[in-house]
Amino acid sequence: MANPPTVGVADGPASPFRKSQFRIVTTRLFRKKAALFSALFILLAVLCALFPELIAPHDPYAQELVRRLKPPSFMDRGVGSFYLGTDHLGRDNLSRIIYGARITLLVSLFAVFVSAIFGISAGLAAGFYGGRTDGVILRLIDMQLAFPVILLVIAVVAVVGPSLTNLIIIMGLSGWPRFARIVRGAVLSVRGLEYVEAARAIGANQLRVMMHHILPNILSAIIVYASFELARMILLEATLSFLGLGVQPPTPTWGGMISDGKKYISISWSVSLFPGIAIAAIILAFNILGDELRDALDPQLSHE
Known about the structure:
The protein is mainly α. The protein has one domain: MetI-like (MetI-like fold). The chain has helices spanning about 5-10, 15-30, 35-50, 50-55, 95-130, 130-145, 150-160, 165-190, 195-200, 205-215, 220-240, 255-260, 270-295. Helix 9 runs antiparallel to helix 10 (about 205-215). The longest helix has about 35 residues, at about 95-130.
């Protein structure tokens, strides 16, 4: 936002000011072709995750060994409607990629949600209260960031087991320190501003000041970071699935498909290539959208 809202505006979530700001930001964002194409690709991935049975041309679990390791249909020896070929059990690669979008996006989205809940709470407390509270939270953040995230997640998943719920919780808890640092820095930049002091002067308690006057005015930083964190979680989920620590077969996952195909890469490259392209494309889309969203929300940049 170009100017911090007054106390009265911050209390009115449905105010015309906020509606106009939302309209301005979306106009700035989708004026850029890169942001528009990224948003459309993400929308396509979401539709695949929500309605895979309506989009996938085949049953992703149906096995037929006589058509195993077939190349894409546009190549020699390709089979009819198996547009991206088949895997080592004769299952359709395209259908498994479409169904795999559900697991990838579900796990990543809920992991980011868990990270945000813990990270925003810790960052608000650290930035607002300062002193000993800030020191304790910063030490906890430093302790967790001292361990390589991927090794920490692999170790914990190996101990507790690779269920869907465990995966979401463990991945989510691995990301809270970064959220906390972003939120803490944003809180420190706004907690001394006039509208916060005005809220304190009229007798608002500390929780109300944090939730109604500070948090709404740092949401732009949180939203932008969440888009980048979602891309990171997608890569982390794919890595765990590749290592066999994600959602277990026969449920299709993009990382699991790459792992299945690596044994046959010399005779059927399509099994690993296309899910790898899907992972790279969705991560690129979220990163581009995050960059453009940051620009759209930054009042210091010219959007003429």
